[in-house]
Design goal:
Elements (H helix, E strand, L loop, with lengths): L12 H6 L22 H8 L6 H14 L2 H14 L4 H14 L2 H14 L4 H13 L3 H14 L4 H13 L3 H14 L4 H13 L3 H14 L4 H13 L3 H27 L3 H14 L4 H15 L17
Helix pairs in contact: 3-4, 4-5, 5-6, 5-7, 6-7, 7-8, 7-9, 8-9, 9-10, 10-11, 11-12, 11-13, 12-13, 13-14, 14-15, 14-16, 15-16
């Protein structure tokens, strides 16, 4: 079972930067697909070919196009399948997944709601609805969907992980930690499970524990650069700059490593250490003039008191 990596979530500024979570409406609705996915002439030709295809073929082809990232073609096949089976919770759920992939969270929420009207205990629809709610900033609503899913499958690693991500986002890190720990017990060989636990420790400022979790993750996926970067950040946050630098050098080179270290110190308001690290990045590589130079300028502004509250909100991404 796949457990989503959280390296791309903005729950903790430092690591995110460096690694680089019912109603009474009528049934049988067709969810309208709106821009930004545009309709092209080639799609109209494709649609004309679909009229005589059986339901199973339409769904199977829709899945293939989804996997290939051809979302407009996947949409055509799912909608045509929905014409044939308008009360299929499965097809509404597949449409919801497509909308999520397209970044259309409102449409995704509607599609999953339709699926749940037809099949209230559908795990896939409940998880999808929870994801859509979380992405729309409706954290409490998302938790409720995942709680419903847990009542049906209390030991499902995906559901546990998604609920934990909601807890993290909603400031319930201690509750999230228990769920992440349970996932590592259920999936002891899964690198992502330990990676997620490590993120949770960083959110709680349990940096040594984060180091341990990321080390476990790296043991299970030695070539995963995102895990290496997470471990590097955790090492530096826990006071082991040497090990953190060495890990960063493996993924982004020496100059990039110092630039990343400098950013961590900047976020921690350790001005002298940050300036020293950025200067070293500039010294090692002229290619880092723009990145490290911007970070140095930002550091000086912060240190001078011109942007007192900017450290946690800067939005800088001048890292590797």
């Amino acid at each position: 079972m796949k457990i989503a990596l959280r390296a791309d979530r903005s729950l903790i500024l430092v690591v995110v930067c460096l690694v680089l979570l019912s109603g009474c409406a009528q049934k049988a609705k067709t969810v309208a697909f709106t821009p930004p996915i545009d309709r092209h002439a080639s799609e109209e030709l494709e649609e004309n070919k679909l009229n005589n295809l059986p339901l199973e073929t339409l769904v199977a082809r829709g899945e293939v196009y989804m996997a290939q990232g051809k979302l407009p073609l996947a949409r055509l096949h799912y909608l045509k399948a929905l014409d044939l089976a308008p009360e299929s919770a499965d097809i509404h759920t597949r449409l919801g997944r497509l909308f999520l992939k397209a970044g259309q969270t409102d449409q995704a929420g509607s599609a999953f709601a339709n699926a749940l009207e037809l099949e209230p205990d559908s795990i896939r629809a409940l998880v999808g609805a929870g994801k859509a709610s979380r992405l729309r900033g409706k954290g409490q609503e998302a938790e409720e969907f995942f709680h419903r899913a847990l009542l049906i499958r209390p030991e499902d690693p995906e559901v546990l992980t998604e609920l934990a991500i909601c807890y993290d986002a909603n400031g319930k890190q201690a509750q999230a930690e228990m769920l992440y720990r349970r996932v590592t017990e259920l999936l002891p060989d899964n690198s992502s499970a330990f990676n997620n636990l490590g993120f949770n420790y960083l959110l709680q400022e349990k940096y040594p524990e984060g180091v341990g979790a990321f080390q476990e993750a790296l043991m299970r996926a030695p070539r995963d650069q995102r895990v290496q970067n997470n471990l590097a950040a955790a090492c530096i946050l826990s006071g082991n700059e040497g090990q953190g630098l060495a890990l960063f050098e493996n993924t982004v080179g020496q100059a990039g490593a110092y630039n990343n270290v400098g950013y961590i110190y900047l976020v921690q308001k350790k001005w002298t250490k940050a300036e020293k690290a950025f200067a070293k990045a500039l010294e090692l590589s002229p290619d880092y003039y723009v990145k490290a130079g911007r970070n140095l300028d930002h550091l000086k502004a912060l240190h001078a008191g011109q942007s007192e509250n900017a450290t946690g909100q800067s939005g800088y991404r001048d890292l590797n």
